[in-house]
From TrEMBL:
This is VOC family protein. It comes from Streptomyces racemochromogenes. Residues 11-123 form the VOC domain. Transmembrane segments: none annotated. SUPFAM superfamilies: Glyoxalase/Bleomycin resistance protein/Dihydroxybiphenyl dioxygenase. InterPro entries: Anthracycline_SecMetBiosynth, Glyas_Bleomycin-R_OHBP_Dase, Glyoxalase_6, Glyoxy/Ble-like_N, VOC_core. It holds the Pfam family Ble-like_N.
Amino acid sequence: MSRSSGEVFGAPVCVSLATHDLAAAEAFYGDVLGWRFRRSRLGEEFRVACADDVPVAGIAAVVPRLGVPTAWTPYFAVADADVAAARIRERGATTAVGPLAFATGRAGLAADRDGAVFGFWEGEVGPERRPDSDGPVWVELKARDAFAAAVFYGEVLDWATDLPGSLDVAYEQDHVVVRRHHHTVARIDAGAVEAAPDPHARPRWEVHFSVPDLDETADRAVRAGGGVLRPVSTSPTERRVTLSDWAGTPFTVTEATGRP
């Protein structure tokens, strides 16, 4: 059963790849992550990526029309896209695109004060977008200042407010964890550098996909024309590696190694 974005406001409800070539995107991510694709109700430029028949992401061939870079971007639910856009601008950030009307709602693309790009969505949220349960996709902001970033997104997206359904925010071991119904929906880590020579060390939202075998996935990415942008890192709960697709667009895959 579908819900409105106002019912799950503040939560990331979709991750979407902006690309210039739908066929190439389907071929790459189909080979690397085993996804299958179906048409989206948003229009001919859009596809829904499914893993084991469960929708996990969107792909949109909108780069030429909107003039945006190829990138994976999280979209956060808002009750009112115009209000969200105004809040973003009032806090010294930028609305780059929209809000634009689509078949099932309205979307906008923005950059926070440090340049990290994110989207916001007002409209229908399908049952495949489950911000109140654990799933194969999660998002993490690499920020210069985790506390300042949490304040910005909290004010824009109504995190940690008295509104019914507001997301909880906690500061744990130098990073910010955002939860809905005890499920982690996003995390903010400090450490990104604004003018770092490595563009992947600058403030940015990272999209993570869970995989059963990290090394096999990385090998498939290289064979499909992508690459490894960062070496594998290991924690008590997971292994992760940042890859690039055939067009150089970064994404991260994680393999669970233990219990949190």
